[in-house]
Amino acid sequence: MPDPREIHDAFAAALRAHDERRLLDCFHPDAVLVTPAGVVEGHEQIEWYFGQFFSTVPDLTTEVTTMVVHGDTVAVEWVTSGSQTAGMLLPDGTEIPGTGHPVRWTGCGMWTVEDDKFVTGRIYYDQLTAYMSLGCRLVRTEPGSAVAPVRVGTPDPETGPASAAESRAGAIRRILRRLVGR
């Protein structure tokens, strides 16, 4: 039986190569992933989930920075980067148009192996950094209403038009002020 590290290494190699067939070979046909975008079940949904990243960021690279194996479970941390050249579909159906801008975020995952395949996985990543690098910003809404990322440059009734050249630090300060209600 292969070590969970070997299965993750094969997965990481397929991810780097954007090889969806090899990537799916790492998963049990009924595998379940819990992701920031929602629950992904089975090969068809897993292929769609990773395909979104491959089409949105065609030069996507992922570097594993930490790996720990315990029994049938492997935990990893990684850094993902590339350039967003195509639209990215969000869970609510909104599409963020491609900008060509560089994107970079960190994340981690926990994978459980049975019969030489991933059967479960949990993926966590820094969503704020990921969405900020896609040109989004947070918008304060009324309690109980949905919050959706908004493209930088989209006029906001509270603050007026945002500049695409606005500094990242300035954007973060604005977000924090909105979050604390100032």
Structural overview:
The structure is a single chain. The chain folds into two domains: 4-125, Roll (Nuclear Transport Factor 2, Chain: A), CATH 3.10.450.50; 135-180, no CATH class. The protein is built from five helices and ten strands; from the N terminus they run ααββαββββββαββα. The protein has helices spanning 4-17, 20-25, 42-56, 127-133, 168-180, and strands at residues 27-35, 38-41, 61-70, 73-83, 88-89, 95-96, 102-114, 117-125, 136-137, 150-151. The protein starts with a helix and ends with a helix. The protein has 182 residues and is an alpha+beta fold. A hairpin with a 2-residue loop joins strand 3 (61-70) and strand 4. The strands form three sheets. Strands 2-1-8-7-4-3 form a six-stranded mixed β-sheet. It has a two-stranded antiparallel sheet with strand order 5-6. The protein has a two-stranded antiparallel sheet with strand order 9-10.
Entry keywords:
182 residues; alpha+beta; 6-stranded mixed β-sheet; 10 strands
Largest sheet: 6 strands, mixed
CATH topology-level fold name of the largest domain = Nuclear Transport Factor 2, Chain: A
Tally of extended strands? 10
- Please state the second-level CATH architecture of the largest domain: Roll
